[in-house]
Structure to design on (242 residues):
C-alpha cells in the first residue's frame, strides 16, 4: 500500500512538473512573438530557472566569501592576470576584424604586463596609455556578417546568442588556461575565474532585483543592448537599420 502511494505521488509530481514546463514553454512561445530576438524563450526561461538554482546554492555563496575575504589588491591582481591571459586572443580577434591598430595595442599590453607587470598581476600597460579592448570571436563573426540567430540563455555560462554560443566555444578552445598541463591547476584557474567574474557582478544583483519586474527579460534586454554596443564599438546604428 505504501509503495502504491509512493508511486502515485511520484506520478503526480512528474505530471505537475511536466505541466509546469509545458505552461512555461507556451508562455515563452507567446512572449517570443512580442520579442523577435528571443525565439527560444520557453527553453531559455527553463535554463534560466536552472541557472538561478545553481547560482543561489553554489556559485554566488562562494563568490560572496571570496569577495569578503580576499583583500582588494588580491582581487585586482586576479582580474588583471586573467585579463592579461586573454589579451593575446583579443589581439587576434582585433586583427580578424581589420582593427590592426587595436591588435598592436593588445599585443603591446600583453608584452608590457607579462614582463613589467609580473605575469599580468599589475596592469602597467593601462598606466602607459595602452587601452584594454574587449573583443571575442562572436564579435568577429558579427563583423563578418554572421547573423545572431536569436537569444539563448545557458546555465552558468549566461546570456548568448546562437552565433555567440559558437563563438564562446571557439574562445574556450583558444583560452591559454585550457593548455595548462596540470589538471588540478587548470581546473583551479577556471574555477577562480568563474568566482572572480561572479564576485564582480555582486553589486549589480541588488539593482537587478529592485529594477526588474521580470528578471529574465531585464537580463536578456540588457545583454542584447550591450552586445550591440560591443559589436559596433559603442556606435551602434539605429535599431531599425540594424
Amino acid at each position: 500500500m505504501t509503495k502504491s502511494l509512493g508511486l502515485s505521488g511520484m506520478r503526480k509530481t512528474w505530471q505537475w512538473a511536466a505541466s509546469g514546463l509545458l505552461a512555461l514553454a507556451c508562455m515563452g512561445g507567446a512572449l517570443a512573438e512580442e520579442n523577435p530576438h528571443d525565439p527560444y524563450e520557453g527553453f531559455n526561461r527553463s535554463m534560466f530557472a536552472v541557472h538561478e538554482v545553481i547560482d543561489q546554492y553554489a556559485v554566488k555563496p562562494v563568490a560572496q566569501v571570496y569577495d569578503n575575504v580576499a583583500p582588494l589588491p588580491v582581487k585586482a591582481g586576479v582580474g588583471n592576470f586573467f585579463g592579461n591571459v586573454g589579451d593575446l586572443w583579443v589581439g587576434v580577434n582585433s586583427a580578424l576584424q581589420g582593427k590592426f591598430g587595436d591588435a598592436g595595442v593588445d599585443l603591446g599590453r600583453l608584452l608590457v604586463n607579462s614582463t613589467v607587470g609580473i605575469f599580468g598581476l599589475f596592469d602597467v600597460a593601462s598606466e602607459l596609455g595602452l587601452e584594454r579592448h574587449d573583443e571575442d570571436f562572436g564579435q568577429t563573426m558579427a563583423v563578418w556578417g554572421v547573423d545572431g540567430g536569436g537569444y539563448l540563455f545557458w546555465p552558468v555560462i549566461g546570456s548568448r546568442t546562437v552565433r555567440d554560443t559558437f563563438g564562446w566555444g571557439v574562445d574556450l578552445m583558444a583560452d591559454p588556461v585550457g593548455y595548462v598541463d596540470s589538471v588540478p591547476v587548470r581546473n583551479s584557474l577556471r574555477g577562480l575565474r568563474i568566482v572572480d567574474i561572479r564576485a564582480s557582478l555582486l553589486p549589480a544583483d541588488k539593482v537587478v532585483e529592485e529594477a526588474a519586474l521580470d528578471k529574465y527579460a531585464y537580463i536578456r534586454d540588457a545583454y542584447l543592448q550591450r552586445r550591440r554596443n560591443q559589436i559596433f564599438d559603442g556606435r551602434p546604428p539605429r535599431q531599425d537599420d540594424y
Summary: The mean pLDDT is 87. Residues 213 and 219 are 11 Å apart (CA to CA). The first helix runs from residue 2 to 34. Residues 37-69+136-231 form one domain.
